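so ive been stuck on this for like two days lol. basically i have the seq below and the ligand is magnesium ion, smiles is in there too. i just want the complex predicted, nothing fancy, no docking runs or whatever. if the output looks off dont worry ill sanity check it later, just need somthing to start from for the group meeting slides
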Amino acid sequence: MPNEPIKKGKVLSILQEKGGCGKSCAIFNIASYFSRAGKVLIIDLDGQAADITYYMFGNKVGESTDNMRSDIMTIVDVFRRHINIDDVIMPYNESIHVIPANIQVTYLNEGDKITFFKKCINHLREIYDYILIDVPPSPNRSHVLCLSVCDFVIPIVNPDSASPKALISLNESIEEIRETSNSGVEYLGIVMNKYDGRTNLAKEMLNQIELLSDKFGTCMFRTMIHQGIALSEHILMHQSIFEYAPKSKAAIEYEALAQEILERINDMEQEEMGL
Ligand SMILES: Nc1ncnc2c1ncn2[C@@H]1O[C@H](COP(=O)(O)OP(=O)(O)O)[C@@H](O)[C@H]1O
Ligand SMILES: [Mg+2]
């Protein structure tokens, strides 16, 4: 079982400035593991795909047949229509709740203020032990809002030639946020997903990403998530990997990764408190 949750809710994001690398899938699975230890909220800020909303609920929410459901409330209603943030939260189960997304979320812009979002998040920190934020691939207002409230960020990479570039670009965004709206945002570590150690490209990319993580003052998680069929299937069943294939290699890897994440959160907090 995971460690006891820390008293005040932690805010983190598994993110990257690149599509298809496994951000939403990872948030779903990590949130699912964290929910064994405490209350978890997922905030979907990806209006382009709203994929975590779809992965978790399918078309059970709303009436539309695609995953751009227009008839649900999102963070945009909180920003623009003064709807209370508690009223846009949907339960996935008893311990995982979700603020869903639809196409409206792509219209977040500079009028949707960071200070207001911070206040909302601070209120949610009193209710949830862990808050995980999912963002779209291309950096936009969702990224700025997310990075402005995160305690920790976990970039996710694949063993492909686009990942080092994406990581460099993400690091620039993080540096900018540190100078403007959130000096305290820290890397928790970098996670390698869809790894296949049989290829030379994968090994070479792993080397490059290790060097970059060092440069950015962080390190990779020991646990890598390998390419696996169960990870492409579980989202279609709207179940986490622990529900869909609890004995799979993927579930074992995600459990190890989630434990490592919790350990690093603990270590960094202790360091901060000078213990
Ligand atoms: N380790 C993995 N092995 C195989 N498929 C994966 C793995 N991780 C994620 N996927 C699949 O890759 C696709 C993209 O994942 P997703 O989490 O939606 O990416 P992102 O949110 O970064 O755009 C999904 O179909 C997902 O099921
Ligand atoms: Mg996604």
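The chain has one domain: 10-267. The chain is about 40% helix and 15% strand.
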